[in-house]
Amino acid sequence: MAEVERKQDRAPVPSEWTYAPAPESTDIVTLQERYGLFVGGEWVEPASGEHFTTISPRDEEPLADVAQAGAEDVDRAVSAARDAFENGWGQASPAERAKYLFRIARILQERSREFAVLESLNGGKPIKESRDVDLPLAAAHFFYYAGWADKLEYAFPNRRPQPIGVAGQIIPWNFPLLMLAWKVAPALAAGNTVVLKPAETTPLTALLFCDVLRQAELPAGVVNILTGDGRTGAEIVKHQGTDKIAFTGSTEVGKAIQRELAGTGKKLTLELGGKAANIIFDDAALDQAVEGIVNGIYFNQGHVCCAGSRLFVQESIYEQTIDKLKRRLTTLRVGDPLDKNTDVGAINSSMQLEKISELVESGKEEGAEIYQPPCRLPDKGYWFVPTVFTNVAQSYRIAQEEIFGPVLSVLTFRTPDEALEKANNTPYGLSAGVWTEKGSRILSMAQKLRAGVVWANTFNRFDPTSPFGGYKESGFGREGGLHGLEPYLKFDGETEEWGG
Ligand code: NAI
Ligand code: MG
Is the CB of 352 under 6 A from ligand 1? Predict the structure, then answer.
């Protein structure tokens, strides 16, 4: 101490820059050994009696057993949701609905540490992110839509908005609680009831959310949570009693759902995959852009549908950018998601790890040059070193397919037109990023990029007031903002539009 305090002509420098472990305690989380299904405000056993184990990807240790819901359970949950819709919730005064949404938002804030720890434990994302991104945003979504509940007629003037009925909602594993919030909050604000299925690898925060619903005294049956795998999702989709389906997940399953629902008149929104372009012009503030590149692709291990997975760098600054990027990668801390210093956590599942590894192998075989910083990975669990591919051709699989992992493919361009042409050369269109000092260039690029969200001099920035969704194979319909209410409403006297 004395040494540090002593006045020196140079600031004291530690002899080593390694970080001491800073683990977040898991004591705040109490898990049951086994969970049932949340139907009609009660915990019930699955009709099949079948359960499966959910693990932690950081050490492959089992956390709890959760139920596999089947057709009978889906039927029960949809009936409970229908009852709740017809016997109260659908007719409840909008201010009354808002009251519950505000309560849920506040309870999420109060219990945010518990939720953040559980999210990181079950899904592998760094606690820093679940604590500072997932939880605040999930609460913010409930606050935001609570505010709209009693203002729908002003939101849609002269259109007489009405709730639809029972919404079936199927969510993925990359932002488990946040995707629940994106789906549940607008559905309830609009006066619908819900049957929601979390992803099979990350069911635990959705199950803990049932406790929040009870604490908020939300009327029974307004929200029903069914755990299970894709088979459960398929049952929810095809059940005659669901009036609307909202799905976030792979393009493959999204297409299957669209085929299943063709001609049924059920409303549908799909939020699917992406292969976003992050475009760096030579006048960009380069150090900030490098931070944006890192945040764009290594945030949440790259398990992000709008991840900036294709980097386009203007040729004149290529060397410089890659040098800076590689240097920055050596400072990323990969490891225990529950360590507060961790930047890149565990890969969500062994299946996803396999998919990432397979695509990275294909990149090497097709001739791209790989860079991975030196990195010590834990012995157990699922991990992937942050990876950059240079010398990537547009035709390579790593430039075409969604990897959904911490893997960046770098391409170059000379002119804005070339950047646009390459950026739009993808079946996807969820998001894009533009880095430049020129406002006019930002506006021009944003207009011509075929992507639902275009970030300028930032990336992966989310806000409940801002609509999010895709073009082309990234899906249709919007979540967030006013746009996010519309798919949960029907309008008296207006013809139903497919996919509306
Ligand atoms: P997936 O699309 O199979 O799973 C997403 C959700 O859909 C899960 O809840 C799952 O149980 C459910 N599901 C699966 N099959 C279904 C069906 N036939 N009918 C209804 N629901 C069904 O995605 P998966 O297999 O977990 O990941 C595969 C790839 O998909 C990833 O590598 C990634 O590229 C992409 N993906 C994209 C996401 C996004 O946010 N856009 C989220 C998750 C995955
Ligand atoms: Mg799948």
Answer: yes
Q: Which of 76, 78, 49, 77 is nearest to 65 (CA)?
A: 49
Residue 394: CB atoms within 10 A of its CB come to 13
Amino acid found at 96: E
Among 248, 242, 232, which residue's Cα sits nearest to residue 265?
Answer: 242
Four-CA torsion 305, 134, 100, 43, nearest 10 degrees: 80
**Band of pLDDT at residue 500, cut at 50, 70 and 90:** very low
Residue 162 pairs with which residues in a beta bridge?
Answer: 490
By CB neighbour count within 10 A (0-12 exposed, 13-18 middle, 19+ buried), where does 49 fall?
Answer: exposed
Phi, psi of 154 (to 5 degrees): -85, -30
**Nearest residue to 453 via CA among 465, 436, 441, 440:** 465
Specify whether the CB–CB gap between 391 and 292 falls below 8 A. Answer: no
For residue 322, the CA-to-ligand 2 centroid distance in Å is: 34
277 alpha-carbon distance from chain centroid? 18
What is the DSSP code string of 9-44? SS----S--PPPP-BPPSTT----SB--EEETTEEE
Inter-residue contact 192 to 219 (CB < 8 Å): no
H or E element, residue 428 = none
> Catalytic residue at 305?
yes
Question: How is the chain split among helix, strand and coil, in percent rounded to 5?
Answer: 40, 15, 40
pLDDT tens for each residue of 410-435: 999 999 999 999 999 999 999 999 99
pLDDT tens track for 147-160: 999 999 999 999 99
Q: What are the tokens at 481?
A: 């903002």
Report pTM: 0.95
385: CA distance to ligand 2 center in Å?
A: 23
222 vs 227: CA distance, rounded Å: 17
Give me the mean pLDDT over the 126-155 stretch.
97
